Structures are given as C-alpha cells and as structure tokens.
C-alpha cells in the first residue's frame, strides 16, 4: 500500500471515531433532557430516529446532529478514496505484470 492509502484509512478511522463520540454525546443529552425513554450508545442504532427526533426537539440548533452527519460523510468519503486508490494501484500493477 502507498502512503496515500494509509492516510485515507487513518482519516476514515478518525472521522468514524468522532462520529461515535458525538453519538454518545447526543445520547447523553437526550437522556438528560427527558426521562420517558432511555437510550444507550449501542441501543441508539435500534431507535436512532426516536433519539434524533427528541434531540431535535430539545436542541433545535442542531449543531451536534450536523456534526454527526458531517463526520459520517467524511468517514465514508475517505473510505471511498482509499478504495479508489487501491483499485488504481492494483490496475497499475496488473498492467505492468507485477504481483
């Protein structure tokens, strides 16, 4: 693998971790702001729209929700860049007859 591929993977991992950190903060905010339904970070994936809607009602500004979406999209984009770099590297190796 080339250095650019390592950088793309590292950036994707950083943005992925930032996404889950912000999801954890969102869950803590939702649990602190209302007492009817409790969410956990891992349980959030089952009821994400309920937690998202509660957070939108409690905090209409939506900076945290926007951050989750941005970090997720950045992680996905870095993964796609890595995949493209990997395919290009394999194509160049195949056309040059390298293993």
Topology record:
Blueprint: H1 3-33, H2 48-58, H3 63-96
Helix pairs in contact: 1-2, 1-3
Structural account:
- α1 crosses α2 and α1 packs antiparallel against α3.
- The radius of gyration is 19 Å and the shape is rod-shaped.
- The two termini are 13 Å apart.
- The protein has one domain.
- It is mostly helical and 99 residues long.
Summarize the structure.
This protein is 77% helix and 0% strand. It is mostly helical and 99 residues long.
Major beta-sheet overview: none
* Helix fraction bin: over 70%
Average pLDDT across residues? 87
Helical segment count: 3
Structural class call reads mainly alpha
CA-atom Rg in angstroms: 19 Å
* Number of β-strand runs: 0
How would you sum up the global shape?
A: rod-shaped
Q: How large a portion of the residues is in β-strands, by DSSP E?
A: under 5%
How many domains?
1
Give helix and strand order, one letter per element, not per position.
HHH
Q: Enumerate the spans where pLDDT stays under 50 for 5 or more consecutive residues.
A: none
Give structural attributes.
rod-shaped; 99 residues; mainly alpha
């Amino acid at each position: 693998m080339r250095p650019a591929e390592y950088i793309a993977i590292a950036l994707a991992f950083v943005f992925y971790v930032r996404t889950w950190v912000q999801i954890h903060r969102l869950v803590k905010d939702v649990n602190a702001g209302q007492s009817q339904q409790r969410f956990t970070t891992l349980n959030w994936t089952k009821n994400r729209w309920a937690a998202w809607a509660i957070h939108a009602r409690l905090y209409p500004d939506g900076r945290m929700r926007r951050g989750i979406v941005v970090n997720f999209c950045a992680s996905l984009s870095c993964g796609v860049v890595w995949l493209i770099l990997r395919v290009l590297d394999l194509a160049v190796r195949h056309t040059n007859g390298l293993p």
